Amino acid sequence: MPLSIKMNNLGKVYKMGKNEYRALSDINLEISKGEFVSIVGPSGAGKSTLMNIIGCLDNATEGEYFLDGLSTNCSDNRLAEIRNKKIGFIFQNYNLLPKLSVRENVELPLVYQGLSSEEIRTRAMEVLTKVGLEEHIAHKPSELSGGQKQRVAIARALASNPEIILADEPTGALDSKTGKEVIGMIKKINEDGNTVILITHDMEIAKEAKRVITVRDGKILSDDSSVGRE
């Protein structure tokens, strides 16, 4: 099966004055297209650093990272181009712009893709309908519940039709019932063919994926395809 992600001996070192802090060491990871993978670990384990590199928000300082066959060892502008075309992000705190409507928040990533106004609006409405928010397109984020805000974030992540969805603690700000609904939507996204990578500190949430990768002290501690729920 073709790979979405391939990492070889990846490492990340942060320099703080004369000191260095090693966040990741010897990460070797392959994720195939269409997989649903969770990355789990306690605070400080390195999973956020790994997420930032997977999402092309940061560069590794050691090793190689290929995203859909493309090297990410490139300029910041090229990295941003790869990120915008290949990855959709779902964040714990939604990251919605408060002054924009639901529809405008979803349209925003499409503006940078050179589409016509009609194409942008059509695509935004398609994904908003998919997440059940077609009747809320004129609302501002402040007028929505937490679950509705996360559904806007999911729609925005899907708008550019990315191959990979990267979800960072997507249920962290939600009650358990709403969290289960959001996880159900993320599982449906995977069933529709997207590669999904879920970052969490919660093992119960992690087990909703078909493969669970545990990170600790900047290294992959385990990689288990048997614990995920079918």
UniProtKB/TrEMBL annotation:
Keywords: ATP-binding, Hydrolase, Nucleotide-binding, Transport
Originating organism: Clostridium felsineum
EC numbers: 3.6.3.-
CDD domains linked to this entry: ABC_MJ0796_LolCDE_FtsE
Official protein name in the record: ABC transporter ATP-binding protein YknY
GO cellular component terms attached to this protein's record: membrane protein complex
Family: Belongs to the ABC transporter superfamily.
Stretch forming the signal peptide: none
InterPro entries: AAA+_ATPase, ABC_transporter-like_ATP-bd, ABC_transporter-like_CS, MacB-like_ATP-bd, P-loop_NTPase
Entry GO MF terms: ATP binding; ATP hydrolysis activity; transmembrane transporter activity
